[in-house]
Design brief:
Distance between the termini of chain A: 52 Å
Largest interface: A-B, 64 and 64 residues
Order of helices and strands of chain A: HEHEEEHEHEHHHEEEHHEEEEEEEE
Oligomer: homodimer
Helix content of chain A: 25-40%
Largest sheet of chain A: 6 strands, mixed
Shape of chain A: elongated
Number of helices of chain A: 9
Structural class of chain A: alpha+beta
Strand content of chain A: 15-25%
Low-confidence stretches of chain A: none
Radius of gyration of chain A: 22 Å
Chain lengths: 395, 395
């Protein structure tokens, strides 16, 4: 088995070079990648091992598992981390003096172990910088996320037919998960942040949408069990309820994010009105989200539009309101940037961003839609193309 | 919302006392729990926040999310970690001098942040010690895992009818996942180790069972995509193949583990013979796995039985053979102890252990079974009760 194909190496080289430019800016002379999301970013696959990226030249790939990956000048089979300095010296590579690690992704134990292996190196936490590198996608990555979004939207078209009268939110969720999986969804979603956990989709019917989250989610449901307080809570779907379905894609390494709302019969006019405001906020953001815009301004413009229509008090939840309207996405569900209050980070071309203005309507449930977009010079390209009106499941 | 009910507090007290005894042994005067698996262990639910367990007396619960958890002398709403010293002092609690943290579960960044919050405390990594505490279950926990296993075995009885001629391993997997979810499986499995990832089940048909894992799994399949190299690889299920299904339960907070093998038509005699050896190894281990036995001895006894029947070369895989036969299980899929070569840890009563002697038969696939057991004074109690013979899906 080869670690990566010759054709794919050109793509990976773009990523390595972006990391090397960042290392230069940070004054580091190498980084050692050891966590799954960044191993995937730098090799295109999951391995158990380490990618050593020097400031210049090609990376070295130290692979513990899988056993049997081809060995060459760049790919070196290892048993343990402690072999690295000897192997680097054997290749006449200088040992790093300022080494970047992923302190926000790796455990404390792994950091300490690495520090002992490179006792003469200053260690530098590059978690945020590597996430910034990943937030601006290559053309290849954009096409992967477009394909993931295309399959996601295709699976979505099958969802309404899965509803049967008398179902619970959980049963409806299970049928949608199955449909996603049959379309090729891998079923596991990487999330940044050690306290984050999520299943394949969050399905929230009625007031469950306002259950305050134990995670860093805005409106994600209370769950079936206190050990996983997210998504459906087992409620029967009843007349007058909105059923919000927030689901990731992951038909390849890349995730797109999408939310749509179903109804059981008719909703109140207020719910339809608030839903329309969500669509209007997204239309506004499609124009305003251009390179150079700040995350904070985009959030505030969204909030102001919600306020203008009288929905500020239920924007992004009621009981636990999130001051947030969207997030970057890619290899993880929650990438940079975060479109939230007080975040002065800038938007860049080729970022991939999910925008999810949502509203909580008590006794009805959540309304609003979420789409994934690619940032271009003149605005956003929507890649989750599917009807955004509220679909009545009983019709 | 209450953090936990009065009835459940007696159960949690048992766990807090076990941790306090361990703190005493380790010379620590408190531990600060911050990672999901241990928050779940010490509160019975997922919160975003911290559980502060002093050497004696009741723990304090500092809750960031969900918003609206009841506040009392023990439950304190916080916005950030940095408030803790002030809040402890306000409660006339001494600040810890030797504070245990979960260095093998939390990120380096979180450890450093905690160190800055408690600058006068010596920090101690208690990951392994807390996992040891968790490895011996309370009666309540044993009943939870029994119930999870009961539902798992019940869902399993529906699996054979889900097979249709011409299916791929992936399609079969999706139907089994759906069945599990409809029986109430929560669908997300906690795993120890930052490089570990898994979906709801590993389905391996034919030679895919021997794909060398990029994870710390013995025989788990190559997967649909290099970004998640585990389980089904999309192969069509064909005559003469074994289809191994290794699936977790998680119908509540607790996981049991179970593997069964299906066949498409008849397998070779060698496959049936090896399968029988797996059952014989488990019968042997049911007697030998008693308090005081060492993990290493149990692995070696298993290996020797495999060797006696001439199956040593394909025991636990061929391409990437694991020197391992089982593992503890509970709130995480892989708990202590690990029944592997060179592990001198002792078995204790009330541990929950999954035993999975498996064999790889080239051109056929994997055979063997896996069950979850509770350790009693006189041997093991099997809790995953379902037929263990190879079920021909075409009959």
């Amino acid at each position: 088995m080869e670690l990566f194909s010759k054709d794919f190496k050109a793509e990976l080289s773009l990523r390595w070079q972006k990391i090397q430019r960042m290392l230069h800016q940070q004054g580091a002379d190498a980084c050692l990648i050891s966590t799954n999301v960044n191993l995937l970013y730098t090799t295109g696959r999951i391995i158990m091992g380490y990618v050593y990226i020097p400031l210049s030249g090609e990376p070295l790939f130290f692979v513990r598992r899988p056993y049997g990956v081809i060995e060459n000048d760049q790919v070196i089979a290892i048993r343990k981390l402690e072999q690295l300095p000897g192997l680097l010296m054997g290749l006449k590579m200088p040992l790093p003096r300022k080494l970047m690690l992923e302190g926000g992704e790796m455990t404390y134990t792994d950091w300490v172990r690495t520090a002992a292996v490179f006792p003469d190196a200053d260690l530098l936490d590059g978690t945020h910088q590597i996430r910034q590198v990943r937030s601006v996608k290559t053309e290849y990555e954009l096409n992967e996320v477009r394909e993931s979004a295309r399959l996601q939207a295709l699976a979505f078209t099958k969802f309404p037919a899965l509803y049967k009268t008398g179902m619970t939110d959980h049963e409806f969720s299970v049928e949608m998960e199955r449909e996603m999986r049959l379309h090729g969804c891998l079923g596991v979603f990487r999330i940044f942040g050690s306290s984050m956990e999520a299943g394949m989709c969050s399905v929230m019917a009625g007031d469950n949408a306002d259950a305050p989250s134990a995670y860093d989610f805005a409106m994600s449901g209370g769950g079936l069990h206190p050990s996983l307080p997210v998504s459906a809570n087992g409620s029967k779907l009843e007349n007058g309820m909105s059923v919000m379905v927030d689901f990731g894609s992951a038909f390849n390494a890349y995730i797109s994010d999408m939310t749509r709302v179903f109804s059981i019969g008719k909703l109140t006019q207020k719910a339809y009105d608030a839903h329309q405001v969500s669509l209007e906020i997204q239309n506004m953001l499609m124009q305003k989200t251009v390179p150079g815009a700040t995350c904070e301004d985009l959030y505030l413009a969204s909030y102001q539009l919600a306020e203008k229509y009288g929905f500020a008090d239920c924007f992004m939840g009621i009981t636990q309101q999130a001051k947030f309207v969207g997030h970057g996405i890619g290899l993880a569900l929650n990438e940079l940037p975060v479109l939230c209050d007080s975040n002065k980070e800038l938007i860049h071309a080729n970022m991939v961003i999910a925008l999810e203005p949502k509203f909580m309507i008590p006794s009805t449930g959540a309304v609003g839609s979420e789409n994934t977009y690619i940032v271009h010079e003149n605005g956003l390209e929507k890649i989750t193309i599917a009807t955004e009106s509220i679909i009545d499941l009983t019709v």
